[in-house]
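Repro case for the chain-ordering regression, as requested:
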Amino acid sequence: MRKLAMLLIVLLLVAGGGFWLLSAPTRLEPQLLAAAQPGDATRGEAVFWQGGCASCHAAPGASGDARRVLAGGVQLVTDFGTFVAPNISPSPQGIGGWSFEDLANAMMKGVAPDGRHFYPAFPYASYARMQVQDIADLHAFLQTLPPSDHVAEPHRLKFPYTLRRGIGLWKRLYLSSQPAVTLAGADEAVKRGQYLVEGPGHCGECHTPRDGFGGLDTSRWMAGAPSPEGKGVIPNITGGEGGIDSWSAQDIAYALESGFTPDFDSLGGSMADVVQNMSHVSAADREAIAAYLKAIPAHPNGYPATR
Amino acid sequence: MQSSRLIALIPALALALSAASAATADPITERQALMKDQGRAVGTVTPIMKGEKPFDAAIVQSALKKLNDDAQKIDAATLFPAGTDKGDTTASPKIWEDNAGFVAAIEKYKADTAAAVAADPKDLESFKTAFSQVSKNCGTCHQTYRIKKD
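-- result from build under test --
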């Protein structure tokens, strides 16, 4: 009896220790960070619009220049509860004291300076594919933005998602800097588009269906998904049935710039913010994104019919 | 005798029928037709916006007028009566949850299209400014008050 109890305790300790080891935060290699040149704020502004930080970190409903004040407060409704995007302006309430290394570890490894895991509602599973130099430039740009002293509300999550440690296991399954799809014979524009879409643009975070643990199902990359907010869908943007095969590359680039679809409907929902960001991106980059979307594998809709 | 009484009934019946059809005139179809018409107006100036065609003051002004005429026809109470988030529509329930916000979005759209017509742009730059003042409303309203279905 005594022996059995001992065995059980040992097993529990091993399991607990295993969980603790497997869920530990990991950071970027110091050599990788040391290779970056000092950040350039002008280039960083381009990265800022590619990355769409304002969609989540500007105040809710902000438009025009107000989208440069990253005060936080936007609510993201998910199956796990409601996340509230924090203040990331250069202020004590934001990330005023953060080094470039801190920002790179947050964006590419989902780890805070104090070692906490971030929730993947912050789309670092996409940002993990970014180039370190882009993050150095972005860091320089973020410091030129106006400070805000707003303190965002805490997240409202269901148990057990309130415990951050478990995110370490999720990262072992889903956090990778590898491309989401392999494209044979991709030209320079398609390669640039792949970087922009799969990395900073984080388009897959909305347009790709998720599995039971909230990881992106890359076998149905960009096939569309039920809306995380419970009503409606996010459309299929591959060339498959229900998708956008009939759109030319120019149609896609113009929709990203202006919000107008080929039949002159105007993109709405959460895509309206993406269009606001994309209208600041260079025309060449919008064309690269369009070229990439025309090159990815076609899939039928990644969501059940709603009507 | 019988038949003449019946004949007398016919106009009354017709009247009743037409009243019924006015009441069931489908607000969803009506508002979608109005929206599509605005889309067509946008389509007439898109080649100019894209730089594929030269600026043409007459084309541009008639598109802005069309958009303004359509905008002034949008009435929340008759085109978006309560309950019409059901059916073949992409209207979001938020229209009724935050009706004051929706009405304000319509009022702003009407004011902006009227201002664009008054601006009467005579070159590409001033047209782009006037048009973006109008087209911002499309995206902003669709962002909050519409959901994509499939």
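Ordering looks correct now. The mean pLDDT of chain A is 94.
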